[in-house]
Amino acid sequence: MTSRDVHVYYGNHEALKGISLDFEEKGITALIGPSGSSKSTYLRTLNRMNDMIPGVTVTGNIAFQGNDIYAPQTDLVALRKQIGMVFQQPNPFPFSVYDNVAFGLRIAGQKNREALDAVVENALRQAAVWDEVKDHLHDSALALSGGQQQRVCIARVLAVSPKIILLDEPTSALDPISSSQIESTLLQLRKDYTIITVTHNLQQASRIADRTAFFMNGEVVEVDDTKKIFMNPAKKETEDYISGRFG
Ligand SMILES: Nc1ncnc2c1ncn2[C@@H]1O[C@H](COP(=O)(O)OP(=O)(O)O)[C@@H](O)[C@H]1O
Ligand SMILES: [Mg+2]
């Protein structure tokens, strides 16, 4: 996926000031930066989630598999299956665990019970939560712990076979143990998926990300291999941020 000179305006306020970032297939990219630096705004441009916000304007080019995702003929449902999203607050539907994970396939018309069973199990295994929920598949997902709910949300995304998974601070509402389980899940998934995750947790970025992009004031100050960003950043602003001088 590539993005070129992406600007986002909320009304007259320019929140994103010309972002050009490329994402290789597979692996994890972390988007870091102070609160209000437009990390979430940028993440939402990648599957057109900003479209839902009134008064928003997006300019520039974002291409996925060679197609401009902002082209008028883009099928947004299909796009968001290919480029799935996980939010800060776990947001399972008030249904059973099974029905949460089967949701997208059922919408797509899959009725075959065995096929659904197989996809649900596989997605929950990939999200590293199968062992914990396999005896509760028909209980409400809302009865699970926050960390389990978040992994069920990841499974819900995986069930529709995405290529890219976007996550916006997926662990910031979770306790440390649940957060570390999500981190291990993402490390498993990085072999098969392109993962782009916003985090304000610098340790998390350094533990899991292959590449890291540092955002400030709606711009990307620096993007590089994670080790380089943390050990030997090219820009003074990056160094100040990662050494905790602001943010
Ligand atoms: N829905 C919105 N309407 C208007 N302004 C917004 C909206 N969402 C974000 N902004 C503004 O855009 C800027 C970037 O916000 P955001 O992308 O949420 O930053 P971050 O995720 O880095 O904390 C902020 O100034 C914020 O107030
Ligand atoms: Mg944000």
UniProtKB/TrEMBL annotation:
Xref: NCBIfam families: 3a0107s01c2 (TIGR00972)
Entry superkingdom: Bacteria
Domain spans labelled ABC transporter: 1-242
GO cellular component: membrane
Assigned keywords, A-Z: ATP-binding, Nucleotide-binding, Phosphate transport, Transport
Keyword Glycoprotein attached: no
GO terms of biological process kind: phosphate ion transmembrane transport
Protein name listed in UniProt: Phosphate transporter ATP-binding protein
Organism: Secundilactobacillus kimchicus JCM 15530
The keyword Nucleotide-binding is assigned to this record: yes
A single MF term (Gene Ontology): ATP hydrolysis activity
